[in-house]
Amino acid sequence: MNVRPDLRIGRNAMLLILMGQENLDPEFIKNLRFQGYIFCQGKTGSMETQKVVAAIETAARKSQVIEKGLYRETHALYHAIMEAFEGVTRGQVLLGTVLRTVGLSFAVIRGKPYSSEKEGEWIAVALYGTIGAPVKGSEHEAIGLGINHI
Q1: Residue 59 and residue 104: Cα distance in Å, rounded?
Q2: Residue 118: predicted pLDDT
Q3: What is the DSSP letter of 5?
Q4: Separation CA 101–CA 26 (nearest Å)
Q5: In 3-state terms, what secondary structure has residue 66?
Q6: 129 strand-pairing partners
Q7: Burial of 19 (0-12, 13-18, 19+ CB in 10 A)
Q8: What is the structure's pLDDT at 1?
C-alpha cells in the first residue's frame, strides 16, 4: 500500500481500519510508532451498544492505549467511541431496541497530532463494518470516526 502516516490522527485511524489487521503495511506501522502514536485494533459485533463500547475499551486498556484507573483517559475514549458510533448508526445510537446489529472492525489511536506540545494528547476511534437487521444478508457497510482530546 505504501501510505505514509502524518500527524492527522483521524486520517491515521481511518487508514488503520481500512487496511485491516491482515493487510497492515509494516512501513506504515513503523512510521506511526516513530511519530509517537500508540494504537490497537480489533473486531466486535452485537445487538447491544454497551457490548461494542466495552469491547473497544477493553482492547484499549489491554494494549495500553489508555491507562486503567485514569478517569480522564477512559472518558476521552468513551466520547470518541460514541462519536464514531454515531457515524455508524447515522445519529441514532440504538441497536437491538430497533432490531439492528453491527459487525465492526475498530482502530484506536492515541498521540499528539499538533506540532505544539501545549495541545496535548488526543485519541481517535475508527469503526468500519456492517449494520442492519439481524438477518444474514440484510446489512450494509458503515463507517464512523470519533476524535477527542485527553
Answers
A1: 14
A2: 92
A3: P
A4: 33
A5: coil
A6: 104, 142
A7: middle
A8: 47
Q: What is the dihedral of CA 74, 46, 86, 20, to 10 degrees?
A: 80
Residue of 114, 122, 108 whose CA lies nearest to 13: 108
Q: Residue 129 to residues 54, 101, 140: CA-CA distances in angstroms?
A: 17, 11, 8
Q: Which helix (H) or strand (E) holds 11?
A: helix 9-19
Write out the chain's pLDDT in tens, 150 residues: 455 668 899 999 999 999 987 888 899 999 999 999 999 999 998 888 899 999 999 999 999 999 998 999 999 999 999 999 989 988 777 676 666 888 999 999 999 999 888 999 999 999 999 988 788 888 899 999 999 999
Which among 52, 42, 47 is positioned nearest to 132, based on CA atoms? 47
Coil, helix or strand for 147? strand
* DSSP-derived secondary structure letter, 102: E
Q: What is the rounded CA–CA span in Å between residue 122 and residue 38?
A: 11
Residue 41 bridge partners (DSSP): 107
Quick one: pLDDT at residue 115? Answer: 86
Whole-angstrom Cα distance, residue 59 to residue 41? 8
pTM to 2 decimal places: 0.91
